[in-house]
Amino acid sequence: MEMTLRWYGSKFDTVTLQQIRQIPGVTGVITTLYDTTPGEVWSRERIREMKAEVEAAGLHVAGIESVNVHDAIKTGAADRDKYIDNYIETLENLGQEDIHLVCYNFMPVFDWTRTELARMRPDGSTVLAYTQEAVDAINPENMFESIAGDMNGTVMPGWEPERMEKVKELFEMYKDIDDEKLFENLKYFLERIMPVCDKYDINMAIHPDDPAWSVFGLPRIIINKTNILRLMSMVDNPHNGVTFCSGSYGTNLKNDLPDMIRSLKGRIHFAHVRNLKFNSPTDFEEAAHLSSDGTFAVNEVDIESFLYWKEGFFYFDDVALVDMMKEIGRWYNIDIEFRNSKIMDLRMHFFANRHQDIFHLIELLNRMERIHAYFEAGKLIIE
Fold first, then answer.
1. How far is CA 189 from CA 72, 112, 193, 204, 340, in A?
2. Which of 109, 251, 287, 352 sits 20 to 30 Å CA-CA off 215?
3. Number of C-alpha atoms within 13 angstroms, CB side, residue 290?
């Protein structure tokens, strides 16, 4: 797992690449071409310039957040294929420039929603915050004006002034879009882009809706375990994956974050490891990563183990041998036969490169006590 920091570009970010490089453990940035608009094709020249600037500072571009999805795609408008074609061309250009991760979202009208951008915490730091009461009391057309004073001269992704000027028009576009229609449009989009993702090994990592419930009556679908697993099976391709943002899924206290992480093994391509502090079920604020500072025990699941799969490794920690072999058998498409049932429940810690052949894996298994493995008649025999 690589630690990165988001960077908006030298024209838009008050934090410099030189400062990012000073953060212990950070080796790359997640960035974007921030002056592009949804639906616009990113040229290879612009991508190359962006990479060169980052690399000149001793870092590298680890991924993109985001290549924004045009509203015509989200609403299933008549001209959506034109914008999907442009998206595919952008992905192809990113792939040719050796960038293989894209974080994106499928939220209508607003991206993430907060009611305060600078709530003061006891230590004097300021954080983003949300209260449902404030949302209920405001006209959505005035949402941008209500927080603009806290923006400190910056431009926030998903809240660009030129986009917010059209908020009434955007609401009209989504008036007939419900959860099912939004799922249908997301499926159509992903099925169209998966071939180019397969060609260039690009992992699409969908960011959860934030907060994880409907805001202003707009549909929100990437909000819980049921819905994200539905999306994974709907387009069952390993390049269709998730950004596991604990701070977004965590806005809904009904979400069991450790259980969600376990259920998404092999499909977590990117993670935002964040903590929140709840003052009430409808009032929360960003918090430091320390469990003592927020509501979540962020160390309950070691997310690193779930990212080993993305890097091309089997990783099993305290897993029954029978369950471990089932997963290995599925990967190599071979049958597993146990000739000694007494060892099936042995608890295993096992690490191996998935891209080595089955005979290399057998060699590793045979180094372990109490296990004898061999290949016979198309089966992997364990005794």
1. 11, 21, 6, 12, 48
2. 287
3. 2
d(CA 30, CA 9): 10
In this structure, are strands 203-206 and 126-131 parallel, antiparallel, or unpaired?
unpaired
Mean pLDDT comparison of 190-199, 208-217, 256-265, highest-scoring range: 190-199
Cα–Cα distance measured from residue 348 to residue 337, given in angstroms and rounded to the nearest whole number: 17
Residue 81 to residue 296: CA distance in whole angstroms: 41
Instruction: List Cβ neighbours of 328 (8 Å cut-off, separation of 6 or more).
Output: 314, 336, 361, 380
**How does DSSP classify residue 114?**
-
Residue with tokens 């320390």: 290
Identity of the amino acid at 275 = N
Above 60 in pLDDT, residue 155? no
Give me the half-sphere count of Cα atoms (radius 13 Å) on the Cβ side of residue 360.
Answer: 9
pLDDT computed for residue 34 by the predictor = 86
- Give the residue from 321, 324, 340 showing the smallest Cα distance to 332: 324
Phi first, then psi, for residue 204 (nearest 5°) are -90, 125
Integer CA distances (angstroms), 107 to 17, 278, 349, in order:
29, 23, 40
**Angle at the Cα of 134 from the Cα atoms of 129 and 139, rounded to 5 degrees:** 125
In the block, residue with structure tokens 């539905």: 230
Beta strand residue intervals within 235-288, DSSP E:
240-245, 268-272, 275-280, 283-287
More confident residue, 291 or 79: 79
Cβ atoms of 328 and 348 within 8 Å: the answer is: no
| Predicted TM-score (pTM) of this structure | 0.74
Any idea what the Cα angle at residue 256 is, between residues 254 and 262, rounded to 5°?
Answer: 155
Structure-token match 């949302």, residue found: 135
Are 30 and 4 in contact by the 8 Å Cβ rule? The answer is yes
Phi then psi for residue 207, to 5 deg, are: -85, 140
The count of other CB atoms within 10 Å of the CB of residue 42 is 22
Residue 116 β-bridge partners: 129
The Cα 52–Cα 89 span in angstroms is 21
